[in-house]
Specification:
The protein has a domain of 41 residues. Helix content is 24%, strand content 24%. It contains 1 helix and 3 strands. Strands 1-2-3 form a 3-stranded antiparallel beta sheet, covered by helices on one side. The N and C termini lie far apart (52 Å).
Length: 68
């Protein structure tokens, strides 16, 4: 699925900073094009489905709760 986002690009010292206006994701690059390319990659990673690298052990525990 493709979705369009709006990016703001500004020069900060020697770097260009690209920030997505809809999602709190930003990236940088040495050129405006590189900053936008890096922002695209950062957004793709942001929306990627998480996958567990280690399967957690799930246990049930019993706890006594005293009435206050």
């Amino acid at each position: 699925m493709k979705r369009k986002f709006t990016a703001s690009v500004q020069k900060e010292a020697d770097w260009y900073v690209a920030q997505c206006l809809e999602v709190d994701v930003a990236s940088q690059g040495e050129s405006q094009q590189e900053a936008l390319k890096n922002l695209k990659e950062a957004l793709e990673l942001h929306f990627e489905q998480p996958t567990a690298s280690v399967v957690p052990l799930i246990e049930s525990i019993e706890v006594d709760i005293s009435a206050a």
